[in-house]
Amino acid sequence: MTTWTSDELHRIAEAEELEITPLRRDGTLRTPVPVWVVRDGDDLYVRSFRGTDGAWWRTVRASRAGHIRAGGVAKVVTFADVPDDEINDRIDTAYRTKYGRYGGTYVGPMVSARATTLRLDPR
């Protein structure tokens, strides 16, 4: 399995947004969508602001693959579910810390969207 370099982790985690381009089942790419990204240790995570109704999230769940771009880093990635509550607790904290200045209107839905947490794995 490929891992992130420390430089990639830092650059992506410091970026305000990550551009995610999910791969459809037919092999074509959807339109890129900006999402918030957070780091926990050597892993990067995203969630759907719209919860399980988010179109990009549903596409990712079906294909498990796509492309990301953030902080000058562009990568083909796979997406893994994160059912672990302990990890999700840390991701909640990471969202509150990184994006708290946007207030509860935006951060609240991200913290509530735990069921949509996906780990980004470089390919």
TrEMBL record:
Taxonomic lineage from the root: Bacteria, Bacillati, Actinomycetota, Actinomycetes, Kitasatosporales
One Pfam family it belongs to: DUF2255
Domain of life: Bacteria
Name of the featured protein: DUF2255 family protein
InterPro entries: Split_barrel_FMN-bd, UCP028498
Species for this entry: Streptomyces iakyrus
